[in-house]
Amino acid sequence: MAETGNPSQSANGHEYTASHIQVLETHEAIRRRPGMYIGSTGERGLHQMVYEVVLYAVDEHLAGHADAIDVTLTSDGCVRVTDNGRGVPVEVKEPGGKSAVERELTEPSFGSGPHTGYRVSGGLNGVGLCVVNALSNRLTAEVHRDGHRWTQAYEKGIPVTLLTRNEETDQHGTTIAFWPDADIFETTHLSFAALSERLQELAFLNGGLTISLTDERPERPVRYHHTDGLRAYVDRLKPYPPSLVHSPAIAFESENQDETISVQAAMQWNTWSQGEFRSFANGTRTHEGGMHEQGFRTALTDVVNHYARRQGHLSANDEDITATAVQEGLTAVISVKLAHPVFEGATRTKLGNLDAGAYVHEVVSQHLTDWLHRHPHEATAILRRILNTAI
């Protein structure tokens, strides 16, 4: 990262020289402009630090190598995240070079995934751990891999110890413990409620993954594990008292032939509430939507109208049912995972991948159409609910 001197001086010509250019080390650049990387230095940015480390562990789960993540908030302000994956690689490629652990914690890759080469990555496109390290007063990495326990310590993004090989072990996995820097953040107090909500969300999005959260300030452990995935998520989001048009929720998933995009979706109509819709991309909530949402909503409206006309609920002269009527009373969750996500803005709240929108439209059209034909009684009840809204 480079910064320049006063622009007015450069306008005078000879006063602007190479001496005005300041080259910052990666950790210095991150510490100087933290909002560019985690959105803010308030509570939102503080919690994003935790999510970045957790999402790195989720990547191990998505790669098929981890099924448990433990998050602990300690009494001295530390956040400790442990997974039972393979462990971050520890080898050094060149003589005298950095270990793979140190590269993960100090070098941003800005690629489609971290240095360890995940096909799908949920963090900040390869810079997550690097950012967390730079914005922490202290950070320790403990890796169980290659028959030993390995450790290394950092301060404000700078290694203060070498990667050390310790005793032999047959365990595997990674533990990242960090203390957010009070000189960077407006507060270093983490909300148990906010973390609990987000971690449960990740458990819904990644069926079969167990995520535990323990707060030692005082102690209050919770554990999340949902084998039913998004269908369980929809069940949690449904209004109370429930008044369902059909049960269970419609759920399906699919992955494209190139294995670059996968889609999971679940939806359920109820009779009285307005409903709720949530979308995610690589585990991150896309509050502003994006192409995957657009593909879902368009396909949903198209399928309902096509089915209604084929079943005689709409005549040739009737206008199409509106998207608003179709979505009234619908609780739905859609989650896409992409090898090459394109997010709009540093806070990653809107997905811009055109191919994601097209694939979601294709998947929803195929699977929802098939479900409606295989469940005619439930389909009729859904259409009746929608048509009553449209009147």
Walk me through what this model shows:
The chain has helices at 7-10, 26-32, 35-38, 43-62, 100-106, 128-134, 192-205, 229-237, 291-310, 323-327, 354-374, 376-390; strands at 2-3, 22-23, 68-73, 79-83, 136-145, 148-155, 158-159, 164-168, 173-180, 210-215, 222-225, 250-255, 261-269, 275-281, 284-285, 330-338. The chain has 391 residues and is an alpha+beta fold. It folds into three domains: 1-33, no CATH class; 36-225, Histidine kinase-like ATPase, C-terminal domain (Heat Shock Protein 90, 2-Layer Sandwich); 229-390, Ribosomal Protein S5, domain 2 (2-Layer Sandwich). α2 crosses α6, α5 (100-106) packs across α6 (128-134) and α9 (291-310) packs parallel to α11.
Main beta sheet strand tally, sense and closure: 9 strands, mixed
Instruction: Count the E strands.
Output: 16
Percentage of β-strand residues: 15-25%
- Under CATH, the topology of the largest domain can be stated as Heat Shock Protein 90
Q: How much helical structure, as a percent, in the residues? A: 25-40%
Q: What is the end-to-end distance?
A: 58 Å
Query: How many domain units?
Result: 3
The arrangement of helices and strands along the chain is EHEHHHEEHHEEEEEHEEHEEEEHHEHH
Please tally the helical runs, counting DSSP H or I stretches of 4 or more residues: 12
Overall geometry: elongated
Residue ranges: pLDDT <50 for 5 or more in a row? 1-5, 7-13, 16-23, 110-116
Provide the residue-averaged pLDDT. 88
Radius of gyration: 24 Å
CATH architecture verdict of the largest domain? 2-Layer Sandwich
State the name of the first-level CATH class of the largest domain.
Alpha Beta
CATH homologous superfamily identity of the largest domain: Histidine kinase-like ATPase, C-terminal domain
Secondary-structure class: alpha+beta
